Amino acid sequence: MTNYEICFQGEHYAFSEIAAKKFLGESAVCHPRESFEQVFQSVRKKKPLLGIVPIENTLSGSIHQNYDLLLENSVGIVGEVNLRIELNLIAPSGVELSEIKTVYSHPAAIGQCRNFWKSHPNIEIMPTYDTAGSVKIIAEQGFTEAAAIASRQAAEDYKMNILLREIEDYPENYTRFLIISTENINFGIPNKTSIVFATKHIPGALFKSLSVFFLRDLNLLKIESRPLRGKPWQYIFYLDIEGSMKEQTCQNALRHLEEIAGFIKVLGSYPAAK
Amino acid sequence: MTNYEICFQGEHYAFSEIAAKKFLGESAVCHPRESFEQVFQSVRKKKPLLGIVPIENTLSGSIHQNYDLLLENSVGIVGEVNLRIELNLIAPSGVELSEIKTVYSHPAAIGQCRNFWKSHPNIEIMPTYDTAGSVKIIAEQGFTEAAAIASRQAAEDYKMNILLREIEDYPENYTRFLIISTENINFGIPNKTSIVFATKHIPGALFKSLSVFFLRDLNLLKIESRPLRGKPWQYIFYLDIEGSMKEQTCQNALRHLEEIAGFIKVLGSYPAAK
Questions:
Q1: What is the pLDDT of residues A32-64, one digit of tens each?
Q2: Would an 8 Å CB–CB cutoff place A121 in contact with chain B?
């Protein structure tokens, strides 16, 4: 088995790294990066060949910055992995829940624990760059009235206590991650395709665009819209389709879409996550 | 003319307040609120009768929290207004650009000035709850190596200097605001309708849903998807349609949509912004 190298945003034991190891195996070498931009930049320079970025969460929705970065950077999607996100309230050992005055975490994790905030209105919320990084901040600064929301693995790594397990609002809390690369790396039989396109400014443009898939029995799995920069109130659309660009039906649909869309980019065909 | 009262998120001279006065006139009485949740809460209690919230920006995209709050709260949309967002770099008088070490602003404004950050990599970015509130922080704390990104009006109000005008990435930087209420207040002839719906879990559901409008020559102005909480990888859709629920065609389309959708809510028919 290949020992893959992959970069991710955050500190070690961030959910992105856990997802990378779920996808590539425990032997994968994971390189932390400060920002999503830096993940894309590294992958563009092939140092390393692979990157992983979260693209959507089943509670808080899409990570739009990564949709924008997929369009701006010449990298493709070569795989995807879904990870159940268990959010734990983590504090230095000996610190009790009643002593916590501030909780540090990534804004996405903060947004997935609304019920916890409602039942603890006196706790101050402090947004940070990363879930695992929040545990690191508390450890390094020696805070004693603070907690972080992060993975079980991050708590173990910093030898901290889990005060409360699974404080996310719903147990159905999954994040979908994309594996990106500039190389055409094969992780199995592709059966899912992601594209981005802008329609011409004509009536019914979106409907006509979706019809090219419907007319060929190609299922749409997701649609996401983003503003077209510089053209107020116009949009670009990201679609996930059940099918591969290796199949004639998909190729026909895309050729049909070219008649309607002003711009199309195929982001990749890859094996869908189980 | 009625002297309307309206609440908004942020401090006085936030863009939401400027938009409210553009919509209601300068005589409108504007009440600041700390969060979008509190704006919705106030409107639900009819104290005051009207609220204003940003829903999308032409550079940074939709404000998803407000889409979620529209669904969770029993309030309707009674109007909309578009405001050109001019972002200014604002510092205490006497402070020069070369002295600035930290810039405070709302994350949305920060995201609209990416070119400025690229050309000033040594400036530390400090996200806050509000653009005008950032000017207030600098004024109240007496910071001298800091600047804020906010409206011209906020600079004037706190007697600060504008160091750089219009630092947003594109001049085509508009925010669309919704006027919300529990009352059916009439601000003109309605010609735009916003709805939210969830499709049944059947193949081609989204395409079939959009067809009910296309088949009746009703233009779609915007589509936005959000995760359906508790049902991983299922989505709810927000649509803006050209037309009013007072018109038979719109009513027919919605009746047709009921055959396909598992859930529909009309958020309101209102006059479209010019």
A1: 999 999 999 999 999 999 999 999 999 889 999
A2: no
Whether residue B220 and residue A206 make contact (CB cut-off 8 A), yes or no, is yes
At A217 the pLDDT is 96
Which domains can be identified in chain A, with CATH numbers?
5-85+173-181 (3.40.190.10), 88-164 (3.40.190.10), 192-270 (3.30.70.260)
Q: Does B121 touch chain A (CB under 8 A)?
A: no
Q: pLDDT at position B1, please? A: 56
Mutate one of A210, A211, A226, A256 to test the B interface: name it (highest B CB count within 10 A): A210
DSSP string for residues in chain B: ----EEEEESSTT-HHHHHHHHHH-TT-EEEEESSHHHHHHHHHTTSSSEEEEEEEETTTEE-HHHHHHHHHS--EEEEEEEEE---EEEE-TT--GGG--EEEE-HHHHHT-HHHHHH-TTSEEEE-S-HHHHHHHHHHHT-SSEEEEE-HHHHHHTT-EEEES--SS-S--EEEEEEEESS----S---EEEEEEEE-S-TTHHHHHHHHHHTTTPPEEEEEEEE-TTSTT-EEEEEEEES-TTSHHHHHHHHHHHHHEEEEEEEEEEPPP-
Confidence of residue A69 (pLDDT cuts 50, 70, 90): very high
> What's residue B129's pLDDT?
85
Distance of CA A249 to the CA centre of its chain: 29
- The catalytic site residues of B sit at 175, 177
Q: In chain B, which residues have their Cβ closer than 8 Å to the Cβ of A58?
A: 227, 229, 231-233
**Residue B84 contacts A where some CB pair is shorter than 8 Å:** no
Residues of chain B with pLDDT under 50: none
Is A177 annotated as catalytic?
yes
* Closest C-alpha among A108, A73, A67 to residue A226: A67
Which of the residues A131, A175, A193, A199 is marked catalytic?
A175
Across A67-93, average pLDDT: 96
Q: Do A229 and B169 touch (CB under 8 A)?
A: yes
- Do B232 and A56 make contact, defined as CB atoms within 8 angstroms? no
Interchain pair A207, B221: CB under 8 A: no
Residue A188 pLDDT grade (very low, low, confident, very high; cuts 50, 70, 90)? very high
Measure CB to CB from residue B232 to each of A58, A213, A230 and give the nearest one. Answer: A58
pLDDT on residue B52: 98
Cβ distance A223 to B225 less than 8 Å, yes or no, reads yes
